[in-house]
Design goal:
4-stranded mixed sheet; 11 strands; 17 helices; 450 residues; elongated; alpha/beta; 15% strand
């Protein structure tokens, strides 16, 4: 915090219409580099490079949010509350600001070191004077209050999933489109449609799993039922889909009924740890493992291993972060943790492969789809922006702003190779060691037919 800074409780505020140039100077002083975007302040003043995107500071409360939570969380709170806005291309603005904000590091030691600099302390005093009496504004209601001491119990996982997914199925239909697939698509070309790319992703998963009539598939984190419906309809398998979201389950069950697949697909509101009706021939986990947590990941892998028959396959589709030189310093993204995926955790792909193998799996294939997720996210953002007013009516302005910022920033993160996404195909190999995989695995044919 900055409460120990001399002048922090100064109540003087500037009343002239010159807030924007003052902010431009103070941010340059604070960051040690010129702000690459323009600023328009609450008093109508404007400053910054001509033609650049503009950061709109709608009120002094935005400054108070930044003073009490310097860095990403303060910016996120101001954005979600509508205290900050952007005029101009969102991607360009985030790209320009990334090097100054998201890629600088902002832990307590960095902040404490920065405050030893007289220039930084003077800039903070200036922001206090400009922002008024810095009482801490209440966080936006969209912010999750998640106790950090009980991560990834069944109760906390259920609450975290509800925060993210029980926003309203109509809202997700705007973003995701008719496929209702909330994970990375698989693009034949960048100009393909989102629907085609999502169909191709589901088909890729089915082929990697070697699905065929008569097999049983467990779809962990089944979402709105897209994978379950596709696998049953196109490959004739019997599917059990589990989710912790009541809204997802209701949507998926209606979808299954509309497709005439109720005798082949069962959708449950159930934690994967409570599934007891194995063994299954195959398990798909698409965009679910990010919720498991590092401390629980081996347990997750072992549970899925136990649910598979010998020779059964697991397809684990999961976002991964880049490894750190010192993994003990890794911290969860504060915006994502507070507003998007409470208690979500990303691990390097090497850690995922290691834990799957420790659980007994033989990892047979790893495919990186990083660029595919960037394309997918840009399509989701475009859909959200195209139907913005209805999205706001359905989810509220704060929640809609969360999703717009989250998806746009994530698209840039994938493009910059800050994060990736991978499909890991693993097998519960029989004791004699026969994997049942084709010799040329990348053809993804059915076992015994290659």
């Amino acid at each position: 915090m900055v409460s120990d800074i001399p002048g922090f409780l100064v109540t003087e505020v500037y009343t002239m219409a010159d807030a924007a140039p003052r902010l431009q100077g103070l941010f340059t002083q604070l960051l040690g580099a010129p702000l690459p975007v323009g600023i328009r302040a609450w008093d109508g003043s404007q400053a910054g490079p001509p033609g650049a995107p503009t950061l709109v500071v709608r009120n002094r409360r935005a400054l108070r949010r930044l003073l009490w939570k310097p860095g990403e969380l303060g910016l996120a709170r101001a954005w979600v509350a509508g205290d900050l806005d952007i005029e101009g291309d969102l991607y360009t603005t985030l790209d320009l600001l990334a090097g100054l904000i998201w890629e600088r590091g902002e832990d307590a030691r960095t902040l404490a070191q920065a405050l030893r600099d007289p220039e930084v302390r003077a800039a903070v005093r200036g922001l206090v004077r400009l922002g008024g009496l810095p009482l801490p504004p209440a966080p936006p209601r969209e912010e999750a209050r998640s106790p950090r001491r009980h991560l990834h119990t069944k109760h906390t996982d259920r609450r975290a999933i509800s925060h993210h997914y029980d926003v309203g199925n109509d809202f997700y239909e705007i973003v995701l489109g008719p496929s209702m697939v909330y994970s990375c698509a698989y693009w034949p070309t960048p100009d393909s449609t989102l629907e085609q790319a999502q169909h191709d992703k589901l088909e890729l998963v089915c082929r990697k799993l070697g699905l065929r009539p008569g097999l049983r598939l467990l779809d962990v984190g089944c979402g709105w039922g897209s994978m379950a419906v596709h696998a049953a309809r196109e490959h004739g398998v019997r599917v059990v889909g589990v989710t912790l979201s009541q809204e997802q389950a209701a949507y998926a069950r209606k979808r299954v009924a509309d497709e005439g697949l109720t005798d082949m697909v069962e959708i449950r509101v159930q934690d994967y740890r409570d599934v007891r009706d194995g063994p299954y021939d195959a398990v798909s986990s698409i965009g679910m493992a990010e919720h498991v947590g590092a401390e629980r990941y081996l347990e997750y892998a072992a549970d899925l291993y136990d649910l598979l028959k010998p020779g059964g396959r697991l397809l684990n589709h999961q976002i991964a972060r880049r490894p750190q030189r010192d993994e003990t310093t890794y911290s969860i993204d504060p915006f994502i943790d507070s507003y998007v995926f409470p208690d979500g955790e990303l691990q390097p792909i090497g850690a995922t492969v290691t834990q799957l193998e420790r659980a007994g799996f033989e990892v047979r294939d790893v495919e990186a789809l990083r660029e595919h997720y960037a394309l997918t996210l840009r399509q989701w953002v475009a859909r959200l922006e195209a139907d913005w007013q209805r999205a706001v009516q359905l989810a509220g302005p704060g929640r809609a702003r969360v999703w717009r910022l989250y998806m746009a920033a994530s698209a840039l993160a994938f493009e910059r190779n800050r994060i990736g996404v991978n499909q890991v195909l693993a097998v519960r190999a029989p004791e004699q060691g026969a994997s049942g995989m084709p010799l040329r695995a990348r053809t993804w044919g059915t076992p015994g037919r290659d």
